[in-house]
Amino acid sequence: MSAQNVGSRNGHQAFRLHMVTWNVGTAEPPADVRSLLQLDPQPATDLFVIGLQEVNATPVRYITDLISEDSWSHLLMDTLAPMGYIKVTSVRMQGLLLILFAKQVHLPFIRDIQSTYTRTGLFGYWGNKGGVSVRFSFYGHMLCFLNCHLAAHMNYALQRMDEFEYILDRQDFDMYNTPQVLEHKVVFWFGDLNFRIADHGMHFLRSSINNGRFNLLWNKDQLTMMKKKEPILQEFEEGPLCFKPTYKFDRFSETYDTSGKKRKPAWTDRILWRIKPKAIETEDENSSTSSSVDDDEYPIKVTQDMYTCDVSYGVSDHKPVIATFSLEMRKKVETPLVTLTVEGHWSADEDATFTYTILENFESSTWDWIGLYKIGFKSASDYSTFAWVKDDEVAANGEVVTVQMSKNELPLLAGEYVLGYYSTNMQTLIAFSPTFQVLESQQAVMEGLVPENINGHEK
Description:
Blueprint lengths: L11 E12 L10 H4 L9 E7 L5 H9 L3 H10 L4 E9 L2 E8 L6 E11 L8 E10 L2 E9 L7 H14 L15 E7 L9 H9 L4 H4 L3 H6 L3 H4 L34 E7 L9 H13 L2 E10 L11 E10 L7 E6 L8 E7 L10 E6 L10 E4 L11 E6 L9 E9 L4 E5 L3 E3 L3 H5 L6 E2 L2 E2 L1
């Protein structure tokens, strides 16, 4: 766990969230995204949420990506998995991509995951613009992340607002307590929102930017201006824009557009958040009290620690925007739904045994399965082997169920592993065993996969 999660005050703990939004302009990813993810902060990040726009989505490429993950997802997984982060879920709508990663320790407490998408632009045709979202419960707190790509061009500010409201209106979740985006306790709204800087001429824009006097441009930023008259926007917070406008750059440079179009710089790429306003007392006392009890007993505090862009990346005409947050909360949920226990020593020389116990009722299924995962695994599907849960009936609460894995399925070489219980209905891993060692098998020695060791000397 993060250092800041230990010894927390009043039972509250702070979790570190790292968010990125980047319009990648159909480019292939750069060789390295480590600085984008800032992998060495103290305390360590708990959740990564990455929203991309304009991921290469030509029809042929899009279909290929549906079969095997896109190159951006591969790079992010390859970078984060060795650091102990697992891809929890992702949602893709043509060029829009939203991916959630979490430390393994948090996965059993990330529940009720749902994602959806809404097409806008060109009358919704081919989804060239719109929004994708992921919602989930994090230790019992309802969070929603909405990655949008809204209409382009200076004179479409009102259309951008219409699109945002249309997306909010159309996004439905199959959850009784949070059927729509704004009913979640915290909403993060981000993406290429495409708001421009109005009225200022190119010379004033460039000199203000070159002198680092970004504040001279804030009052003409369309999103800031819209906030003054749109009640829905007034509920969203945003940190100060103390970084260069992120659009439009010549590729592989820090120079703004030198093409004939001479597009004006703008803060098109943004990250905002909204904490659900406290319930207003209504005639229905039950609903207002339950909501206010929840707000009072389990408040959530969101603090933005950083809001910046990384100008070192040049594959696109946009620079990526990064925001880090501290989410301070009291956990509503602290026990996993299932426990997994490894029995005896494991090696490919004999069948292996483990047990699982359902601790709390959940919508289990005979399609649930338990995977063997090598430490450093990337996602729920990245298992070495798996076993179905008890297939004749769903296990009862508190019942200890014994399962065997065939020796023929076990890894031949030694390594560190965990067992993970995958819930088909929840679409996520909901429990892990403690880490354990799979021992080197005699078969591995016989097949020459490892040198034979006799009296401390390799043969």
